[in-house]
Amino acid sequence: MEIMYVLPVLAVLVSFSHLFISKKPRTKDRVVEIFLMYFLVILVGLSSIWAFMGHAFASAEVAAYIGWPAGSPFQFEVACANLAIGVIGIMCLKFRDNFWTATVTAFTIFYWGAAYGHVMDMIQHGNHAPGNVGAPIYFDIILPTILIVLLVAHKILEKNNQKQ
């Protein structure tokens, strides 16, 4: 089973486990905060580091899976971008507030940009490789959307709590 299917399940399980074990009250804000944190750490952090390793150390296999020619130096640049996003995702364990906003923004731009690139590659070049238009494209669109919804909900709930 590919890791892209395992990590979302892991993020949900870890979030529920944290909430179950934690002694803090399970308020709406707390639940959203915990889910957002683990989605950032696991789905942004770990998944991006995993993508870095693939693009950097198994570049020919990853290129074939995406339907790209192997050996392009741009693939290492994509690997480094994934590494940067992965590191900031992991850093979300320690840093909060606007750091989370910046992380969601960077992740969304990169992943929605990748989704656009994959769709255009399919339209313009007929690339129907599983790594180009298969499950990865759905993750490129859905994961940033989930993160945006969680972040906005967290900001709204946090603001409402400050008013009380």
- Low-confidence segments: none
Compute the separation of the termini in Å: 47 Å
Largest sheet: none
Rg, Å, rounded: 17 Å
Oligomeric state as shown: single chain
Could you characterize what this model shows?
The chain has 164 residues and is an all-alpha fold. The protein has one domain (29-158). The chain contains 7 helices and no strands. Helix 2 runs antiparallel to helix 4. The termini are far apart. The mean pLDDT is 94.
Salient structural properties:
single chain; mainly alpha; elongated; 164 residues; 7 helices
Concise overview:
The chain has one domain. Helices cover 83% and strands 0% of the residues. It has helices at residues 3-21, 28-57, 59-66, 74-91, 98-125, 130-133, 135-163.
Topology:
Layout: H1 3-21, H2 28-57, H3 59-66, H4 74-91, H5 98-125, H6 130-133, H7 135-163
Helix pairs in contact: 1-2, 2-3, 2-4, 2-7, 4-5, 5-7
